[in-house]
Amino acid sequence: MESLIYKTGDLARIAGVHPNTVRFYEKMGFISPASRSSNNYRVYTEKHIYQIKIYRCVYNPGWIGRQIHDQGHKIIKAMLDWNGEEALRQTLIYMDMIKKEQATALETAAILGRWADKEKTAHRGIALNRTDAARLIGITAEVLRNWERNGLIRVPRNGGNKNRIYGDYEIERLRIIYMLRQSRYSISAILSALQEYDRGNTAGVIKAIHEPEIPEDLTWVCAGDRWIKTLETALNEGEKILAMLEEINKGEGSLGHENQRYIAGKRVSVRRDSDFSLLTNGV
């Protein structure tokens, strides 16, 4: 069976990146090392095209949190190893993590809406210590301690030993802080926004968090919408990764005739790698 090999410029055009980006990806180990032609030109195969496209799917959404970010790297690593079974497994985990984060984001967006309308927090009888509260939010106890030190939240102490107890209101506040941090707002910006809210100035919340430029139509709830849209983008990119893995497994490829370029203008026949059908052999 025949496969095509590509020069750097051809690979860059097909993958939609600059030729220098291809060289950078190879230098940084994001794609497999290129072979060399008889005249010492770099030569790439379809494998490299998929590696670049999947790498960019992982990074296109931007920052989506440390845990999801690290999971995306596991997909990239599996593609470097040309291990389709592992790439598929890690992609499914990646998408499951995004879906769970979406559910949390939607719940937090509802909290933001209630805060914007100055509705009181519903009492559900939650009473957690710091470790359990951190686990519920999806952070470490040390991160939560840091938020407390920076004044983002004040937690009441109860009992004889004066332990901090996180109730319904504190958990809602933590969910909002978490969403804003995931959306890349600084600790200082979040503190300013929450201080405005605590003063009863809901209009001042967005002004505080978005200084110096504030879009006229921006509302308190928009802070949550921003994170939700990022997660939607990440999920769409994950679907693209699954589609590409399926293409590779079926041996169909996604390289139409309009993408086919050849070294020195000629088609070069090479033996297809025995492991090109990723999901068959796995290594």
Overview of the molecule:
There is one protein chain. The chain is mainly alpha-helical and 283 residues long. It folds into two domains: 2-100 and 230-281, Orthogonal Bundle (Multidrug-efflux Transporter Regulator, Chain: A, Domain 2), CATH 1.10.1660.10; 104-226, Orthogonal Bundle (Multidrug-efflux Transporter Regulator, Chain: A, Domain 2). Helices cover 59% and strands 4% of the residues. It has helices spanning 8-15, 19-28, 46-59, 66-80, 84-116, 130-137, 141-149, 168-182, 187-198, 202-210, 222-250, 278-281, and strands at 2-3, 35-36, 42-43, 157-158, 163-164, 270-271. β4 and β5 (163-164) form a beta hairpin. Mean pLDDT is 78; it is low at 210-220 and 254-283.
Spell out the blueprint of helices and strands:
Elements: E1 2-3, H1 8-15, H2 19-28, E2 35-36, E3 42-43, H3 46-59, H4 66-80, H5 84-116, H6 130-137, H7 141-149, E4 157-158, E5 163-164, H8 168-182, H9 187-198, H10 202-210, H11 222-250, E6 270-271, H12 278-281
Antiparallel strand pairs: 1-6, 2-3, 4-5
Keywords:
283 residues; mainly alpha; Multidrug-efflux Transporter Regulator, Chain: A, Domain 2; 2 domains; two-stranded antiparallel sheet; two-stranded antiparallel ribbon; 6 strands; 59% helix; 4% strand; disordered C terminus
